[in-house]
Automatic annotation (TrEMBL):
Official protein name in the record: Cytochrome C oxidase subunit IV
Positions of transmembrane segments: 22-42, 48-67, 79-99
Source taxonomy: Bacteria, Pseudomonadati, Bacteroidota, Cytophagia, Cytophagales
Broad class of where this protein is predominantly found: membrane
Domain of life: Bacteria
Keywords from the named record: Cell membrane, Membrane, Transmembrane, Transmembrane helix
Alphabetized Pfam families for the sequence: COX4_pro (PF03626)
Location(s) in or outside the cell: Cell membrane
Membrane topology: Multi-pass membrane protein
InterPro entries (alphabetical): Cyt_c_oxidase_su4_prok
Length: 105
């Protein structure tokens, strides 16, 4: 009546299969976004449009990195909103302070 488990069965249960596909997907997405940023940096003149594009792309990359590497996209929506809403207000506060301080026209 003894239970018999082979070493092969035990090792399969202990070691999960590597998820290299997800890692490579993340790598390529971030590489493409960074390449687009470099193209914009060297083709557009230094003006407000370029700064706005860089800011937008930086926010997109930041959300993607937080979602992938900090596993926030796998959490419940309430936690995501609890992190996102204060962040938006802090960014809004910083923009308002810079504008009121006369550094952004």
């Amino acid at each position: 009546m003894a239970s018999h488990v082979t070493a092969h069965e035990t090792s399969e249960k202990e070691i999960p299969a590597p998820q290299t596909g997800a890692i490579w997907k993340t790598f390529w997405i971030l590489l493409i976004l960074t390449a687009i940023e470099f193209v914009i940096a060297f083709t557009l003149p230094a003006n407000t449009l370029r700064v706005a594009i860089f800011s937008g792309m930086t926010i997109v990359k930041a959300f993607y990195i937080v979602g992938e590497f900090m596993h926030l996209k796998h959490e419940v929506k309430t936690l995501i909103w609890a992190v996102l809403i204060p962040t938006v207000f802090v960014v809004w506060l910083l923009v308002a302070l810079i504008y009121e301080g006369g550094h952004l026209y």
